[in-house]
Amino acid sequence: MSDKYADIIIDISHEKVDRPFQYRIPDRLRAQVTPGVRVHVPFGKGNHDRIGYVVDVSDKTDYPLNKIKEITCLDEKGTTVEGDLIQTAYWMKRHYGSTMITALKTVLPVKQKLKQLEKKKVTRCCGEQEIERQLAECIRKHQTAKARVLEALRKEEVLPYELLRQKLNVAAATLNSLEKQGILTIESESYYRNPVKRISERDSAKILSKEQRFIMEDVMHDYLAGKRETYLIHGITGSGKTEVYLGIIEQMIAMGKQAIVLIPEIALTYQTLLRFYKRFGDRVSVMNSTLSMGEKYDQMERAKNGLLDVMIGPRSALFTPFPNLGVIVIDEEHENSYKSESMPKYHARETAIQIASCKGASVVLGSATPSLEAYFRAKKGEYKLYTLKERLTGGRLPQVYTVDLREELKEGNRSIFSRKLKELISVRLEKGEQTMLFLNRRGYAGFVSCRACGHVMKCLHCDVSLSEHRNGSLVCHYCGYEERKPEKCPSCGSKYLLGFKAGTEQIEAAVHKEFPGARVLRMDADSTRTKDSYEKILSTFADGQADVLVGTQMIVKGHDFPNVTLVGILAADLSLNQNDYRAGERTFQLLTQAAGRAGRGDKPGEVVIQTYQPEHYSIVHAANQDYESFYEEEMMYRELLAYPPAAHMLAVLVISGTEEAGNRLMEKFVVLLHQKIGEEKELIVIGPAPAAVSKINDMYRHVLYLKNSDYEKLVQIKDILEEYIRQQELKNQTVQFDFDPMNTY
Ligand code: ADP
Ligand code: ZN
Ligand code: ZN
Question: Which atom, in ligand 1's list, is nearest to the CA of 388?
C-alpha cells in the first residue's frame, strides 16, 4: 500500500490562509482523514501540538521521506464551520478546476482577522438631585461645557461619547474631569459593523394563497421528515414566489435554523432588502460588493456566533458560515451572474446543492424563466417542480404585438420606431402613462468604420472594435484603452469615418425628436457609473417625473412600476446573432422579462417587439409568454448538438503572451488526450481554435471544447491537463477551465 499525504493548514481561524504544510497520514487514520477534518499535528522546531485543517489529500510528496512528519490524531471536536467550507473548497477545486489555495480564497472571502470596532459611552452615576445640584453650580461658575453635559445627562442616563464630543462640542478633558468627580463613567464596548440601517417598521406574513401554501407546506413536510431536496418554483414575476421564500424561512428560524438568500447583485435594491428587514428585523444581514473588508468580516462573525438568521447577497453569500443552515434560496435562478467568471468558475446553483447536502439543508430555486438546466433536472425528477400561474396583485398578462422591421423598411419607415410603437407611445403621452424602451444590446458595440473603404477602428491590444463615446473618444470595453477619434480614415484617408450609434443615446435623441416635450430618462452602463445613480434613475421614474425610460437590460430588473403600460423592445434579435449556444435562451429570458414589465398595476399593458426575425422560436414563444414550448424547442436543439444540459461541456481556455505559445500548448493537450483517453467514442472534441475574441490586453486566447454525457469523464480530462500544467510551470501563460460554460469563448 503506497503512502498517503495530507496538506494541512494550521489554525485557519486565526491566521490568514498562508500555505498548507504536508504530513504523512498514518495508516490507521487513512479512512478518516479527508478535506475539512480537524487534526492534531506536531508543528515547528519544537514540534508543538497544534490543530490544523486537512485541505487536500494526495499520493505524492515533495518532501524527503525521512523528514516528513506524521499526523498525531483526529481532533475530537468533529465538524466545524471552517471544516465544512474547506470541504466545499475541495469539491469546487475538483469539480471546476483550480488550485486548492484559489478555491480556499473563494470560500473564505475574508482571510485576516480584523479588529473589532469599539464604541465609547458615557453613563451617569449619581442621582437626579445630585445632577441638578452640580448643574446649578456649573451655571453659577459659567462652566458652560460641563453644564451642557449635565443637562444632557439629566434627560438620558446613557449617552454615546461621540455625541457629547461632537454634537455638544465638549472637550475630552472636560469629560475626563467629570469622570474624576464621580459624576459619570466612560466605558468602551465593542460592536459589529452593520451595513443595514435600523428599521423599526414591521411586516407580518400575508395569508398565503392555496398554491403558495401548498409549496411551503410540501417543502417543510419533506424537511421535517428528514428529506433534503432541491425545489424549483416556476412562476411569473409577481406570482408570489418571494412570499413563499419568506414563509419557509420563517419556519426555519422558528426551529433555530438559518437561511441564505441569493439575489443577483443588480436586483439587490433597497426595496428588495426592505421586505426581508421588515419581516425578520435586525437578524438579517447583507453581503455585496460595496461593503468594506471590515463590514464583510463582521457579517461573517455575526453569522458564526449565532447573531444572524438570514444572509442575503449575490453568489458569495453562499459561503456564510452559519452553524445550523436550514435552507438556501436562489431567486432568479437563471441569471448569468450566478456563474463565477474567475477560477474556480463555479455555478452558485450546483455549489448551493453541494453545500446544502453537506450541511443538511434544503435548496429552493425560483424563476419566471428557469434555466434550461434547472427545468431539465426538474423534468427528470431530480428537483421537485412547482408552478405559480397567477399574478397576486391583479393585472393581466400584457397584449403583445410583434413587428417585422423588414416590412417597415419596405413601407418606407426608416425611423427607429415602428409605426405601431409610435402610435402607442403617443397614446401613453396623452393619457399620462409611462413607457419603457428596452434596447437589447448584449454583445453589441457601437463600432466606428470608414464608409469609403470599410476599415473598422480596432483596439491595439484586443481583437475587438472600439466604441465611440459622446465626448468624441474611442474606447475599448475589454481593456479600457482610449484614443481620440481620428479626423480621417487611417487606412484610406477618407473623411467619412462614422460610428454606428444604435445605442441608448441615439434612442433618447430619437424620442426627443419624435415626441418633443416628452420627459426622457436613460439608463445604461454610462449613466449609472456612480454608486447611487442606478437607484436614483429608477426612483425618479417611479415617482412619475419622466414619461419614458430608455435602457439596456438593466431596466428589466428591480422596481415595480404600476404606471408603465407600454414596453417597446427595439431590435429584439440583436442577442440572437451571437455565435453562442445560449443565445436563444438568453433572448427568450430577456424578452419575457421585458414584456413582463408592462401592466403591473390595474391598467392593462401592451408590448411591442420589433425584430428582423419574427419567426424565430425564441421571439414567437416570448411573445406568447409560453415557456413550455420554448423549452421543448430549445431542448431539441441542445440534444441534437450535445450542448448542456443534454450533455456536459468543458471549455479549456489557454491565455498566452504569444500566438505560437498558445498553439504549442494546445497541440500538447490534444496529443495528451489521445494518449490517455484514446479513441473514446463518446468524447466530442471541438478545436483547438483561436477564441472569438482572440486577443485581450495583448494576451492571445485559444479554446478547446470537450463534450461528454458523463461529467466525471470531463473532470478526469481536466485532472490530466492540470497534472501536465503543474509539471510545466508555464511562463506568461495561464489555463482556465470552464464546465458547462454560460457563453462560448
Ligand atoms: P414574486 O417573488 O414571484 O415576484 P412576490 O412574492 O414579490 O412575487 O409577490 C408579488 C406581490 O404580491 C407583492 O407585492 C406581494 O406583497 C404580494 N403578495 C404575495 N403573496 C401574497 C398573498 N398571499 N396575499 C396578498 N398579497 C401577496
Ligand atoms: Zn477608409
Ligand atoms: Zn482593448
Answer: 3
